[in-house]
Amino acid sequence: MKKIALITALFFLSSGALFAQKAVNEQDVKVSYVKDFQRQVKNATDIAWWQIDENTFKVTFVDEEKSRQAMVFSNKGMETHYIVENSDYYPRTIVEYIKANYSGYDITDLWVRKARNKMTYQVRIAKMGGFLWWKSEKDVQILNFETDGKFIDE
């Protein structure tokens, strides 16, 4: 019985690291971030704010053209993430790189990242662990690629 309790406790502690961002109300976000978002994005729907750390917030939304996007605001500036929802549109060079260098990992999210007027791809990959119906993400990594598909760093 102690082993089951220990395993359960370890599972919940480790899952907290995977979900480091927490949902927050717009009132809990820095006013300047909210105003900046509202100035840049008109007619957004499905708006959700997330706190990543003390000074970093992410807002996810659907724009006028029905594209899912995210913006990250921090003391370092702002990033825009254009989320690629359909895996048919993932760049083949990136998919092949991950298959060749990260065996057992799957792409969970891919987005075009715009920061300081530079466009790159950012990919979230995960290795699944567990058994039967109880699967969880065992290892998660964020990889960065140039727009031509060249690997930059982890």
Global structural class: alpha+beta
Order of helices and strands: HEHEEEEHEEEE
Helical proportion? 10-25%
With strands numbered from the N-terminus, the spatial order across the biggest sheet is 1-2-3-4-5-6-7-8-9
| Rg over alpha carbons | 18 Å
How many domains? The number is: 2
What is the straight-line distance between the termini? 40 Å
- Biggest β-sheet description: 9 strands, antiparallel
Strand content: over 45%
- Average pLDDT rating: 86
- The tally of helices reads 3
| Annotation, overall tally of beta strands | 9
> Per the principal axes of the C-alpha atoms, what is the gross shape?
globular
Q: What low-confidence regions span 5 or more consecutive residues with pLDDT below 50?
A: 1-19
Task: Explain what the structure shows.
The chain folds into 2 domains: 17-79; 84-154, no CATH class. Helices cover 24% and strands 47% of the residues. It has helices at 2-18, 31-40, 92-101; strands spanning 22-24, 45-53, 56-62, 68-74, 77-83, 105-115, 118-131, 134-145, 151-153. It is an alpha+beta fold and 154 residues long. 12% of the residues are buried. A hairpin with a 2-residue loop joins strand 2 and strand 3 (56-62). It has a 9-stranded antiparallel beta sheet with strand order 1-2-3-4-5-6-7-8-9, with helices on one face. The protein is globular.
